[in-house]
Amino acid sequence: MGVLEGKVVLVTGGANGIGKECALLAAREGAKVVVNDLGGGAAGGDAGSAGPAEAVAEEIRKAGGQAVSNSDSVASRQGVARMFEQAMDTYKGLHAVINPAGILRDKMFHKMTDEEWDIVIDVHLNGTYNVTHAAINHFREQEEGSFVLFTSTSGLIGNVGQANYAAAKMGIVGMSRIIAMEGVQKNVRSNVIAPFAWSRMIATIPIKDEASAKRVERMKNYMRADQVAQLAVSLASPVCKDVSGQIFVARGNEIFLMSQPRPIRGLAKIEGWTPQTIAEHCMPALKPSFHDLGATTSVFGWDPV
Q1: Residue 290 burial class via C-beta count within 10 angstroms: exposed 0-12, middle 13-18, buried 19 and up
Q2: Residue 212 belongs to a domain
Q3: Looking at residue 50, what is its pLDDT?
Q4: In sequence order, what are the residues at sequence separation of 6 or more whose Cβ sits closer than 8 angstroms to the Cβ of residue 300?
Q5: What is the spatial distance between Cα 103 and Cα 42, in angstroms, rounded to a whole number?
Q6: Number of other CB atoms surrounding residue 283 within 10 Å
Q7: CA 179, 181, 186 angle in degrees (round to 5)?
Q8: Pairing, β 8-11 against β 96-99
Q9: What does the pLDDT look like over 286-297, one tens digit per residue?
Q10: CB atoms within 10 A of CB 95
Q11: What is the number of structural domains in the chain?
Q12: 212 versus 281: which is more confidently predicted?
């Protein structure tokens, strides 16, 4: 018997990459799955198609599982309401939401357009709000529910050219934390995963030099979407019933628990600070504890296991 036996799971972005692997694995682990995917391109903004989500649902059914498809956008509150209603109408329940749906519009911040900012925030941050808010009261009433949300090392650590994506992904971390805190008494859990995996979104990142080419090749060969799915499905299931409010990184066969912001060093001045004394005394004292401006690759600088 699988870890999701008898459960109903909504997987967004379920037609490709991490979402597809999550949907397939959830079904193999016994879940009835609502496979959602707009069916558009990795950059978003196109009309989409019902075909990709239905193809994954059909693959699950052919393997003996239960699945239906949905092609609404997570950025649409009416669309997300239909996903929830579809789960309830078809399977009479919903127990977990796995939400890797997303797009990229990478651009240096000084060149970024309002449209490139808005669409990424809308899909990632507002989309995460939409799918969690649609299910939260149901989860609280049944005193069971798990949200598996997706952040990124672009937000946790930083990557050049992804200010819109990083801002949205850090917003998701804060949202997940509060959902977890407010859900303790009702057995409602929320966790976030920062995944390393080759996907259509990663494929849109420009390769500008030999180092980035090697990095992309490493992701293709050693960091797969199905490895991320193992963690996502585990967190969605009752076997992780005591895990909530955490930030994980999934990288190949490695799983990391990430720190969360806490004071690391402090300085007080009895007579109070001035701008000048802050610059002369406070900042030099704190500087050894500053984080550098290195990108994700400076933190995860070794080959994945």
Answers
A1: exposed
A2: yes
A3: 87
A4: 153, 196, 249, 251
A5: 5
A6: 12
A7: 80
A8: parallel
A9: 999 999 999 998
A10: 24
A11: 1
A12: 281
> Confidence class of residue 35 from pLDDT cuts 50, 70 and 90?
very high
Task: Determine, yes or no, domain membership for 278.
Answer: no
Give the number of other CB atoms < 10 A from CB of residue 268. 7
**Selection from 69, 40, 65 nearest residue 200 by Cα:** 40
Domain extent at residue 35? 8-260
Spatial separation of the C-alpha atoms in residues 281 and 261, rounded to whole Å: 24
The DSSP-derived string for 113-127 is -HHHHHHHIIIIIIH
Which of 208, 220, 225, 204 is closest to 43 using CA atoms? 204
277 found inside a domain: no
Residue 106 sits in a domain of what CATH number? 3.40.50.720
Separation of alpha carbons 217 and 304, rounded Å: 12
The reply to whether 42 falls in a domain is: yes
Tens of pLDDT, residue by residue over 38-69, are 986 655 555 568 899 999 999 999 999 999 99
Assess whether pLDDT exceeds 60 at residue 145: yes
Report the residue count for the chain. Answer: 305
Q: How far are the Cα atoms of 167, 247, 300 from residue 203, in angstroms, in the given order? A: 21, 24, 20
Active site residue 129: no
Catalytic residue among 91, 129, 165, 222: 165
Beta-bridged to residue 70, according to DSSP, are 36
* Mean pLDDT value across the chain: 93
What six digits make up the tokens of 252?
A: 């190949």
pTM of the full predicted structure? Answer: 0.92
